[in-house]
C-alpha cells in the first residue's frame, strides 16, 4: 500500500519520470545500483517499478521518524557501516539467490555535492558471490527539494542496460574493475539529456 501511495505521490507532486523500465528484469535476482544524493533516493527508486525490492540501509536511519517507517515498508534491512557486517552481506546474497531485487548504493553514502563519489567494493562483491546482473541507475533532482527555491523539483529515474555478472571469485582486482564499470555506467546515465 505504501509503495503505491509513494509512486503516485512522486508522480503527481514531483512529476517523476521513469526511463528504461524495460531494463528491470521481470523475474530473478538483480541489483539496482544507484547514485545517492538524498534520503528520497530509496523510496523514489523503490517505487519506480512494480516488482518488490529490498534495500540495505545504514542502521541509524531506522531510528529516524517517518524515514525509518518508510524503509521498513520498502523491505529495507540494516547494515552496520565502518565494519564488515557479515550478517547483512549474507542476507543480501540470500535475497538475490532467492530471486529478489536488491537496491544498493555503490558509493556507500550520500554525496553532499551531488557529484559521483568513489565506489566501495561491497556491491561488486555481493554481485560476484550471487552471480546476478547489476542495473546501473541514475536518480536526478532528489537533492533539490526545498533548495534553489524549488519546493517540488522534477525527479527523474533512469535504468540503464544490465551489467552481466557471472558468479565467481571476488578478488580485489575483479571487484575494483566491476565497481569502476558500475560508476562509469551511472555517470553516462547522469550525463544523458532528457527530452520532456
From TrEMBL:
Catalytic class of the enzyme: transferase
Superkingdom of origin: Bacteria
Enzyme Commission code(s) on record: 2.3.1.51
Alphabetical keyword list: Acyltransferase, Lipid biosynthesis, Lipid metabolism, Phospholipid biosynthesis, Phospholipid metabolism, Transferase
Name of a matching Pfam family: Acyltransferase
Catalytic activity: a 1-acyl-sn-glycero-3-phosphate + an acyl-CoA = a 1,2-diacyl-sn-glycero-3-phosphate + CoA
InterPro entries in alphabetical order: AGP_acyltrans, Plipid/glycerol_acylTrfase
Transmembrane segments annotated in the record for this chain: none
Residue ranges of domain Phospholipid/glycerol acyltransferase in the record: 30-142
GO molecular function, one term: acyltransferase activity
NCBIfam families: AGP_acyltrn (TIGR00530)
Family per similarity comment: Belongs to the 1-acyl-sn-glycerol-3-phosphate acyltransferase family.
Domain notes: The HXXXXD motif is essential for acyltransferase activity and may constitute the binding site for the phosphate moiety of the glycerol-3-phosphate.
Protein name (database record): 1-acyl-sn-glycerol-3-phosphate acyltransferase
Highest classification ranks of the organism: Bacteria, Bacillati, Bacillota, Negativicutes, Selenomonadales
